């Protein structure tokens, strides 16, 4: 096991998601929080490689899961976002879900796109403490589902399609303790094209 993980670059500037996510949140979230997970994961993997007993390896599992999950989740999260059509600085296609198999699957499994977002927001809002909300594909039932994971746990039972971070560091500087308002606004910068790509890869059997 080698420590080779690196902080990925954002696919846009820090202010690209304004007015829905301010630049200072993006700077701190990516440059500080995500980097901390990467650094801690590399350190944990180095310690694991040096460990000589089962007890030492077991003691490192928590750090590997937490920081490894933080790195995996955030690397997906940045791709899940893109500037909105009414962006303050940059105009993009955030929040636009094009017609096609992905949209039809959401309508089939949730009733409508609006019903999906309502279920997603209610389920994710109910997370106690910190965690993640996911639109995910269940490989056993081959349907889309809303699931949550606590803390930085990675999603292991499903294929993640869209993930939203509800740790307070993702929104507090702008939305304070109003997680519901953050969840309502973030759909304006959701990169549905990335979600569609991940969905198509999942149903085709590609390894994500």
Concise overview:
This protein is mainly α. It has helices at residues 23-50, 54-59, 61-79, 101-110, 113-125, 172-175, 179-186, 192-203; strands at residues 131-138, 143-150, 159-165.
Describe this structure in words.
- The chain has eight helices and three strands; from the N terminus they run αααααβββααα.
- The chain has helices at residues 23-50, 54-59, 61-79, 101-110, 113-125, 172-175, 179-186, 192-203; strands spanning 131-138, 143-150, 159-165.
- The chain starts with 22 loop residues before the first helix and ends in a 5-residue tail after the last helix.
Oligomer: single chain
Strand content: 5-15%
Q: How many helix segments?
A: 8
Q: Helical percent range?
A: 40-55%
- The spatial strand order of the largest sheet comes to 2-1-3
- The global form is globular
Helix/strand class: mainly alpha
Largest sheet: 3 strands, antiparallel
In terms of per-residue confidence, which ranges show pLDDT below 50 for 5 or more consecutive residues?
Answer: none
Average pLDDT: 97
**Gyration radius over CA:** 18 Å
Number of strands: 3
- Kindly, what is the distance between the CA atoms of the first and last residues, rounded to a whole number of angstroms? 20 Å
Could you give the order of the helices and strands? Answer: HHHHHEEEHHH
